[in-house]
Amino acid sequence: MTSSEFLALAVDASFVMIMISLVLGFYRIARGPGFGDRVVSLDMLTISIMGFCGLFAILVEDTAFIDVAVVLALIGFLTTLALARFAERRRKRSEDEA
Amino acid sequence: MIDIIAGILVILGGAFSLIAGLGLVRMPDIFTRMHASTKAGVLGSTLIMVAVGLVKEDPGTWARVGVAIFFLLLTAPIAAHMIGRASLDDKHRPRHE
């Protein structure tokens, strides 16, 4: 086995593992049980998809996918931050009503 | 030789992402789930990004890989802290037993 064949095999194996991790993350989003669990799962999915972009950059030999990963990191960060603020405010409001 | 190192990094990165997904499903409450998903997930994606830099080996790619890893390491702890603080109430406390 040459070294480039080993790299191709490693990229394929890693694609499979990241796919399984995405399926597990979607399972946690569907299952819940709370709002926070879903947000944590969404955060993990964003980070896993960044790894997916890196693998795709190796597979098609195009570095444009690294830029996709950078943008995804920023958007995922803002999403998580906004959802966390929303959860905090929602809890405060329900405490005020009680 | 570079390809073999990059291949090992790619496999390790995929394995860490898989561990993050497993931790997300198997852990008992939100704080332990966050512990598994943020730390293992960030390490997995970082290893894959370093492998991309090794395969391409030009300065522009390394710079973009560095920016991606920098943002990952900068934003993941802040996001985890925010979710943890938001979900900490009377019903959801970290278990100490």
Low-confidence stretches of chain A: none
Oligomeric state of shown chains? heterodimer
Radius of gyration of chain B, whole Å:
16 Å
Structural class category of chain A:
mainly alpha
Low-confidence stretches of chain B are none
Which percent band covers the strand fraction of chain A? under 5%
* Ends apart, CA distance between termini of chain A: 68 Å
Total DSSP helices of chain B: 3
Counting structural domains of chain A, the number is 1
Helix count of chain A equals: 3
Kindly identify the CATH topology of chain A: Helix Hairpins
Secondary structure: number of strands of chain A? 0
**What is the CATH level 1 assignment of chain A?**
Mainly Alpha
User: Could you report the average pLDDT of chain A, rounded to the nearest whole number?
Assistant: 87
Strand element count of chain B: 0
* Helical content class of chain B: over 70%
Largest sheet of chain A: none
Describe the model.
The complex is a heterodimer of chains A (98) and B (97). By secondary structure, chain A is mainly alpha-helical. Chain A has one domain: Helix Hairpins (Orthogonal Bundle), CATH 1.10.287. In chain A, 91% of the residues lie in helices and 0% in strands. Chain A contains three helices and no strands. The longest helix of chain A is centred in the C-terminal third of the chain and has 34 residues, at 64-97. Chain B has one domain (2-86). Chain B contains three helices and no strands. Chain B has helices at 2-26, 30-56, 59-86. The longest helix of chain B is centred in the C-terminal third of the chain and has 28 residues, at 59-86. The termini of chain B are far apart. Chains A and B meet through helix 1, helix 2 and helix 3 of A and helix 1, helix 2 and helix 3 of B.
